[in-house]
Write a structure and sequence with these properties.
Blueprint lengths: L3 E4 L9 H10 L5 E6 L11 H7 L7 E6 L3 H11 L3 E5 L6 H10 L3 E6 L17 E5 L15 H13 L5 E5 L4 H9 L4 E4 L1 H4 L4 H9 L3
Parallel strand pairs: 1-8, 2-3, 3-4, 4-5, 5-6, 6-7, 7-8
The structure holds D-xylitol-5-phosphate and zinc ion (ZN).
D-xylitol-5-phosphate binds next to strand 2, strand 3, strand 8 and helix 7.
Length: about 220
Amino acid sequence: MIIKIAPSLLAADFSRLGEEIRDVEKAGADLLHIDVMDGHFVPNLTVGVPVVASLKGKTKLPLDVHLMIDNPRKFVEPFARAGADIITFHIEVVSAPEEVLEAIKSYGLKAGLALNPSTPLSKIEPVLNDLDLVLLMTVNPGFGGQKFMPEVIPKMKELRQIIEGRKLSLDIEVDGGINRETAKQIIAAGANVLVAGTAVFANPDRKSNLHALRFGQ
Ligand code: DX5
Ligand code: ZN
């Protein structure tokens, strides 16, 4: 399985975002994870459409937009126009994800559904075949630098089995508290896209940070 690393910009120095992005791109990142928070669904407020628009064209990396917001349907078009390549929203805020998934795909983007640590896979099983990725949160969303929640590992294993059983090819992206210690267990559990903020941006050697995450050492 090819392991992809998606540095989360939430942990980057926002006063030097362009340099930070060039840094991780040079160091071998596969995606840029952009955490959009509205202060309602999560108790934090971060970046929005103008930041995504300013990044587009400045990097070859796909922009992996993680919407931690109450009304994702309303923001599909603005983020699509701003240059998002992937839009992931939370199953906890919609009763009918199909409509939002359709809107994301109508712009030719990849569509993902995110689950908080306590949300069961049963919530997304009905639409699993329509997804390009599932984002399993291993922290309660809202902040970087939190502790990894190992109780989510069985959910990764179960999801990988369901995907293999249905012969689907969607990605299992894991997000929150991922570092060189936890990366190995996460990859062994079947995840193939690792989001990491602190572990990538906290210390200067981006290349070795990314390498350690990708190979779990
Ligand atoms: C949390 C965000 C995560 C977070 C990851 O709500 O969705 O992407 O920024 O940061 P670390 O890797 O520091 O936990
Ligand atoms: Zn995220």
